[in-house]
Amino acid sequence: MTRILAAADIGSNTAHLLVAGTDGELVMRIDNYNEWIPLGEVVSRQGSIPKEIVQQLVMAVKEFKRMANSKQAERLYVFATEGMRMARNHDQVLQKIQAETGVRVEVISPHREAELSLRGVLLDTRNLGADMLFEVGGGSLQIGRIRKNVLEEKESLPLGTGRIIAESGLRNPCPDWAYKAAENYIQDTLERSTIEGTPQMAVVSGGVGRGLWRAIHPDGEKVLSIEEIDYMAWAAARLPVDRIMARFNVKQRRAGTLLPGALVYRALMNRFGVKEMAISEFGIREGAILEMANAKGASSK
């Protein structure tokens, strides 16, 4: 029996709603809404969420609620990830959102974030035999080792695109010193990883990875090679934002994530000896929809 459910994540680059129909095994998208809110970069620089961003979040959640109601969704589950987790004032922000919208936002752990992402990713990668999951956001990187479609190991590192920009001064076009600072920050942070081994197949989830994929593969081919990631890092470093937008047919905000995204995914591929990565069109929101449909923890908000 198909049910209509809604899930929204307040991530470190965007706040994004999905309204979907599901039978508990498949997910059919009905409506999407997203707003660019760069929590990862802002909080990395300031340590807390400023008033103007708080108001933007309130308005976004109000729109999530309106859209979910308009599509007759029986549940709306709103959750937040690293950008909210690392903000000093996140408790006050969540209280304000609930007071003004009636919606309670759950701040989920990095491990739960990875588990929901894998659940969504498996919708279109189940048969690839992937044994590693990468997800780069605006505030953090999730790495998971997969065995028989279950996460055996998982970890979170502070390697989101917003954090990389804040730590290194990365910009477009990018001076050599900022490019090198970003590479050094990424390498130093990846050295904290405790997950070892050489995967046979890595699968990528999340908006940063999908942004790279759409920019490099407008034909829709689902696999990115390390040579293509190298090219993106080279091109995005030397071009201004308007040229990146024109060349890769991306919006301004997404154009700014292509360089840090390419640098961190290239470092991941080199660390784990991966030559190609499969891109999933699904992820954390679809995972949350499936969890709600199977009544395992995600409750009506």
Task: Tell me what the structure shows.
- The chain is of the alpha/beta class and 301 residues long.
- Helix content is 48%, strand content 22%.
- The strands form two sheets. It has a six-stranded mixed beta sheet, with helices on both faces.
- The radius of gyration is 18 Å and the shape is globular.
- The protein starts with a strand and ends in an 8-residue tail after the last helix.
List keywords for this structure.
301 residues, 6-stranded mixed β-sheet, alpha/beta, globular, 11 strands
Based on CA atoms alone, the radius of gyration comes out at: 18 Å
Helix content class: 40-55%
The percentage of residues in β strands lies in 15-25%
Tell me the distance between the termini.
Answer: 22 Å
Q: Write down the overall mean pLDDT.
A: 95
Assembly type of the shown chains? Answer: single chain
Largest sheet features: 6 strands, mixed
Residue stretches low in confidence (pLDDT < 50, at least 5 long) are 296-301
What structural class do the secondary elements suggest?
alpha/beta
Number of helices: 12
Element-level helix/strand string: EEEHHEHHEHEEEHHEHEHHHEH
Task: Please provide the count of β strands.
Answer: 11
Query: In which order are the strands of the major sheet placed?
Result: 8-7-6-9-11-10
Tell the overall outline: globular
